[in-house]
Amino acid sequence: MSQTHVYVGCATAGTVDVFAFDPQAGTLTPSAHSVEVDAVRSLAANAGRGLLYTGSSGKPPALAALRIDPTNGALTPAGRVELADSTAYISLDADGATIRSASYHQDVLNSVALDADGLPVAPATRAPSPGEKAHSVRSSPDGRFVYAAALGSDRVVWYSVSAGATEGHDGGASTAGSLTLAGSVDAAPGSGPRHLIFNADGSRVYVVHEMSGEVAVYERDAGTGALTETQRIDSVPASLGLVPGFARNPGGPVPGPDAIWCADIRLGADGRYLFTTERSTSTVSTFEVDPATGHLTYLRTTDTEQQPRGAAVDATGTHLLVCGEKSGHVSACRIDPADGTLTATDRAATGAGPLWIEVVAPE
């Protein structure tokens, strides 16, 4: 791939929008190569295979693979598998052989095998439920465990992974590695663990809580997968005047403008800074990460796009990108390496309801 591209999944518009991104200038250039994906909710990419994956909650829900044109970032359909359950979040396993999907509405995880060409293979298989309102699922960097956050049950769970079998696209069926529930850790009642991320070596897990606004830091045992909480810190300063939020039911009201409603969590490429988004106040909070302990120090909260649902850090680690579900825009902010300050460098219009950002850079 000759240049960096930013892909934005826009649920209301039913599109994946394409932008060329210049990490030196911090500029976003809209492309004419957007594609239609009904009710797209989340994205995942395998740059090595030149594929972008979409999870959608249309009728029926589906997981699709889109091939990336290396010259201009354009997307063309390459494969699709229907799902029995809606999807709020998708991610690739560490070995790139399986896609996992979390269903907020049906409280389950789905696994879809990818063949040797990276294309999805039916049928999807369900894992034991992590709890109510599953909102994220991610493989550990070593590939031995899969972790999921169940927002409605205030729980983070982990599964051990058994190996699946993968063959070429014309060589028969592939199977996803099956998941066996291995353990869980409870969060504070009503806190709502939502999205989780790993540090680079997988020794720590960071979880943002939608309703309490807290970020929890866990040490991870590589042998057993077990998580041990070592820190819990607020991402929403008291000066914003928010009260604890609540778990949204499908089709129900959203939290009011005075309620905590956190969404995404991202680590900088070098692991020095961590970022979270809060939708009621349309802000991003920045933390410094202690390299020895992984503990967080709150630095500041910065205004951003209206109702910031999704965020991403580009491969160079120089910019944070944020999309506003209500603003219909994506913005790029330069990350000051000295203190993590965010400075806006560009902003571009998207389709309605942008929820997810995926950055694909040249390898």
CATH architecture: 7 Propeller
Largest sheet: 5 strands, antiparallel
What oligomeric state do the depicted chains represent?
A: single chain
What is the total domain count? 1
What is the CATH level 1 assignment?
Mainly Beta
Question: Could you say which overall geometry the principal axes of the C-alpha atoms support?
Answer: globular
Can you say what the CATH homologous superfamily is?
YVTN repeat-like/Quinoprotein amine dehydrogenase
Helix residue percentage: under 10%
Give the strand tally: 29
Hey, roughly how much beta strand do the residues contain? over 45%
Radius of gyration: 19 Å
Poorly predicted tracts of residues? 166-170
Q: How far is the N terminus from the C terminus?
A: 7 Å
Search tags:
0% helix, Methylamine Dehydrogenase, Chain H, mainly beta, single chain, 29 strands, globular
Give the SSE map.
Elements: E1 4-10, E2 15-22, E3 27-30, E4 35-36, E5 40-46, E6 51-56, E7 62-68, E8 75-82, E9 89-92, E10 98-103, E11 108-114, E12 120-127, E13 134-139, E14 145-150, E15 155-161, E16 179-186, E17 193-198, E18 204-209, E19 214-220, E20 227-234, E21 262-267, E22 273-278, E23 283-289, E24 296-303, E25 308-313, E26 319-324, E27 329-335, E28 342-349, E29 354-360
